[in-house]
Amino acid sequence: MKKNFLKTIMILGALTLYLFPAYGQSPEKMSYQAVIRNSSDQLVTDQLVGMQISILQGSASGTAVYVETQTPTTNANGLVSIEIGDGTVVSGDFTTIDWANGPYFIKTETDPTGGINYTITGTSQLLSVPYALHAKTAESISGTVTETDPIFTGSQAANITATDITNLGNLSGVNTGDQDLSALATKTALGDSTAQVRSEIPDVSGFLTSETDPSVPTGTQAGDMQYWNGTAWVTVAAGYEGATLQMIGGVPTWTGGTPPSVTNPTTGKIWMDRNLGASQVATSSTDAAAYGDLYQWGRGADGHQSRTSSTTTTLSTSDTPGHGNFITTGDIDPCDWRSPQNDNLWQGVSGTNNPCPSGYRLPTEAEWNAERTSWGSNNAAGAFASPLKLPMAGSRLYSDGSLDYVGSLGVYWSSTVFSTNSRGLSFNSSNVDIFIDYRALGLSVRCIKD
Question: Is residue 159 part of a domain?
Fold first, then answer.
């Protein structure tokens, strides 16, 4: 099961409900989770709650194509987990929803006492179609699929016939008897015949436009280096001006140097002008060269932050795992790469495992919130238009290490701890939030000057 780590905070009535949809990979169902708190911000634990879930088509107030009810029980952390499509059907058929005909919205109504007096209502858009369900449409494809190459079809090479190939073969350097030119009485006639042959040979000079060395990894930027981690080549992004290269835990790591910075005139805070691991300042919200690395909360720059690093399911028992693999946890709470957990990581400029350059650190939740309120708009456009020029670099899932939401969601860690999770800033094309999520997630890091 792959959970969407963005937990949107909604305050409704006397309760606060943190919602985060989780798209399942099994057919005909979709996982959904919610953390329930009372008006005193206390978890509602080990208690039966009543829920009605509706799938709305077209808009947040659109037609309900499917409605069901469920009565899950919160766990010791106030968490309820349900499978949409597995409840008591009120109307519609979950298996017949045409996910390609969106947009779709999930409406949840909750009765914290376990009945049907739903006093809490929330609606959120499905920003991604549930892939396993949408992929079912492929089952309906039948017949023959014909593929064509439009570049080749539109070129002169497409006009070469079997006869042309035979004629060209007959002009080889060895006289096979079928190259008799005795009928050509003069050199002029021979020249005319040669010109005729040349005119009938298609021009294929445009087909060799470039040549690449397959030993050079793709996607590298100026100043990047590669090192072998035992199983694959890993990219080391270029260091800052004046930095030195050191071996730390068997990983080549740039240390020191002066990182380029930018100042927010509204808050007065000084930030790095790019994400950790990025080769340049973002030129757009979807500038891949500005995405940078994806860190698991609290880990140092040991190589795991590379988007292509290998994965392991072995949890670390210390603050330094001793390798550069991305640690996956599956869906086992608390979904942290370290066991037992350590809340004291990334705390301040001298904090344990601080991945930022000298004099810099992870921002706090409050500092991210102050930055957000200075933007012209609370969405991805406002994030990029700000002095920080934040791109939507996506994330890396704690469950299997795969990349998620690259180019459609920006998710940045803070140093602030919340229970067994940590907080940060997230934004997409329509909104921005301060989120709470699992520490094993791989997210972007933007450093602030201490």
Answer: no
Evaluated on CA atoms 218, 220, 222, 228, the torsion sign reads negative
389 and 263 belong to one structural domain? yes
Query: What's the pLDDT tens digit per position in 189-210?
Result: 555 656 666 666 666 666 555 5
- Please give the residue range of the domain that contains residue 51: 2-135
Mean pLDDT of the residues in the chain: 83
The answer for residues whose C-beta is within 8 angstroms of residue 139's C-beta and 6 or more apart is: none
Does 139 score more than 80 pLDDT? no
Query: How many distinct structural domains can be found in the chain?
Result: 2
Q: Which residue has the higher pLDDT, 430 or 211?
A: 430
Spatial distance between the Cα atoms of 162 and 171, rounded to a whole number of angstroms: 15
Same-domain status, 252 and 401: yes
Does the pLDDT of residue 3 top 60, yes or no?
no
Is 414 a residue whose pLDDT tops 90? yes
Q: Are residues 126 and 254 in the same domain?
A: no
- Measured over the CA atoms of residue 227, residue 230, residue 233 and residue 234, the dihedral's sign is negative
How far apart CA 330 and CA 3 sit, in angstroms, is 10
Last residue of a domain, one of 81, 113, 135: 135
CATH assignment of the domain containing 37: 2.60.40
Do 237 and 131 have their domain in common? no
